[in-house]
Specification:
31% strand, 227 residues, single chain, 8 helices, alpha/beta, five-stranded mixed beta barrel
Length: 227
Amino acid sequence: MIFGIMGAMPDEVDQLCARLQDVRCEHYAGVEYHCGTLHGKQVVVCCAGMGKANAASTVQVLCTKYGIDRLIFSGIAGNMTSKIGIGDVCVGETVVYHDAQLDMLAQSAPFLEEYHGDPVLVQAALDACEACGVKAIAGKIATGDTFVGDASTKKAIEAKCHPDCVEMEGAAVSQVAGRNDVPCVVLRAMSDNADESGYEVLVVKQFSIAEYVKTATEIVAYMIDHL
């Protein structure tokens, strides 16, 4: 069993990479892949880069070149619900694009307008959150190639697909994993509220997300240990 573990930014995978044993690093198509073991399990950890194209191409490499059997995407997102708050986690039970023509995408494999996290991995993530003392929900994640940092954009996305959080990679990860019949789950720790304050903190001030990522790292490590 080989686990693929992805993030979009270096901060989202650095803490996890530091935990690996017997590590070898390989550069391929602009991405550094860290191959090693975590809790005795074979893993490949990588930072795909932000956005749907980067995410999709990296998933395909993990499937084709590294032969992964399961995939976990871990990172941060903008909160879109009152059910959780900053630092809490949304586990992607459903993942959907908010900026795509869904009926046209569904004409190609895996022939879906929305994607669903693998039930075993979703439950493993929820169990890990509980064990780590982190509030979490199994919810809906919306993906698009735009950082959501203003109230009007947030409102438009809410009206279109009613997600629990918004980010830039999850649906692409899920779509390509589905094409390859690889079970996957997307985990998101809430870093902001997808509004002007979030843009100011994360983009203008380039605030460190290390504390938020620490939450996700603990959860992923627990999952690998117990799967």
